[in-house]
Amino acid sequence: MTTLLYDGSFDGLLTAVFEVFEYKYNDVEIRNRERFQQENMFAEIHEVVTQNEKSDRVLKKLETSIGKSGIKQLLMVFLSELPESEDLIFSAIQQSIKSPENNVLQNFANDDILQISKICKSVSRERHRMTAFVRFEKMKDDIYFAKIDPDFDVLPLIRKHFKDRYADQKWMIYDLKRHYGLFYDLEDCEFFYPDSSFNLNQYQQKFHDEEINYQELWKSYFTKTNIKERKNIKLHVQHVPKRYWKYLTEKF
User: Fold this and answer.
1) Locate the DUF4130 domain: which residues (predicted)?
2) Is residue 138 part of a domain?
């Protein structure tokens, strides 16, 4: 058994896939270096150095067989962060190379492909909920700030949505679970990775006066328009699960 350790990036994973074929490994597994715990003391460790040239070659190969939509599916599996994600992606790529004339991601008779389809649906559902339930708060520096902690790493999947929808204002979305975010400055929309000096709690306390007034008005409106006799908590939770309530001003 040879274990290929990569840096946790999608390009790193594709580089590892390339090197499986480059070095003609047979019995292999691909693992994220940060999460890897060696269980087989006899396994050979292969350290992968991410190379865009190699990952691009894998992407071009995949595009001819599963298309851009198929590549996006594999990316969604990767962003799910599930323990089996590397194995499923590698399995799909192996099948694609063996049958380049077919879109193997449509072969739901295969257990791995079926699992990939289920994961994509879950990740897509979480992406949709993030676009629906994210709430921005205006800070003193005139930046609209929102915090999220989704089950899956969907920040790369909601980037275009928010860039297109809020193109006329500066905004920031921060993933509490993964400690990175998106920042849009009216021109570029880039990922940022704050260092230890970034104090989220202190930043959140710097609300703009307009934001404080807005929150109070919204809470008052929500309270006065709420009809207790027509309250249906079961239906409400169906449409807005409780784990998303922390994003909503009226639930604070």
Assistant:
1) 84-250
2) yes
